[in-house]
Structure prediction request, 392 residues.
Amino acid sequence: MRTFEQSTTLKRLPEQFFAKLVKKAQYMKDQGHDVINLGQGNPDLPTPSHIVEALQHASEDPINHKYAPFQGHSYLKEAVAEFYKKEYDVTIDPDKEIAILFGAKAGLVELSQCLLNPGDLALLPDPGYPDYLSGIALADAETAFMPLLEKNNFLPDYSSISSNVLEKAKLMFLNYPNNPTAATATKDFFDETVALAKEYNYCVVHDFAYGAIGLDGEKPQSFLQSEGAKDIGVEIYTLSKTYNMAGWRVAFAVGNPSVIESINLIQDHLYVSLFGAIQHAAAAALTGEQTAVQQLVDTYVVRRDAFVTTLHKIGWDVTAPKGTFFAWLPVPDGYASEEFADMLLEKAHVVVAPGNGFGEKGEGYVRVGLLDSEERLVEAAKRIGELDIFTK
Ligand SMILES: Cc1ncc(COP(=O)(O)O)c(C=O)c1O
Prediction:
């Protein structure tokens, strides 16, 4: 069989760090162990039934068996605008300021290809969601990392970025509530972000994947709530986490019209729009009853409290996460992140994601997803306690 060589563009793509983790976990399962997998970010609960029913009905309508309009149905964009008005009091023009995406991941990767030329510079959070790097690699652009440190509440310290770097930057990625650190952002921070981007003339992409998941009664701030945000950036919102729709692949970008136009342009060449019935169900999710979202957040709070309380009991000094469904836990002295994660898998049969997979500054942490039942999370914490690593 002949092997065809990959293009230089493909060869630039970074290694999928977490593929290794999935393999290791599968190996332990194949050995017959009862593995508790807290290493991934795949919501475990089902999509609310009214959304599933909307899909069922819409899938029977022959109009949805045809190609959908290239840039998505206008009723979905109107639903997005209604959602942003209701949730954040932000006014969006459905025609010019919204692009429908095949999941946030696709949009985040496309954005670098839309806005960066080879050699251009993008500012990225470290630690951060790995797919930002994929888009930058495809665009053959360069990266400068902004460390997210505990002492700064995991927000980048803009005063530590040199003016040379800021002048060269074309794009900045941010994500709050944050994966992997579970930190949240304040309006002051976003105001500062807008002011700096205006001064240095780069585009800000705020990944709002966990926009609905504030755990202490505080509603996470939308970037677009800061005055002038639309002048310099876009926000990416996915239905994956808010409505447990990760498998449905539906998200949208909102904000700066020139960036939205670029996203629509690249997508016109890559795809026709999403299956119409999915667009219909997404509109039903955004404009319908939101009680299921509050119930979901309440579930994560119960899980978080049970898990963190048990970790404290076993002597692991951790801070309770404020947003997302992740916990970002410091590894005990004497361990590297990967070594610690491997040890938990081998000895406790608990999968956690090693922090270094999210960037250099993720070293010293592991990320736990609160994506199993309260009982299983407590069981995982107890199994870790039995290893007697922590002093009680
Ligand atoms: C920070 C962040 N952005 C984007 C995504 C991808 O979302 P989607 O399912 O819409 O592709 C995820 C999913 O894990 C995420 O954690």
Notes: Residues 41, 103-105, 129, 175, 179, 207, 209, 238, 240, 246, 251 surround pyridoxal-5'-phosphate (CB under 6 Å). The mean pLDDT is 96.
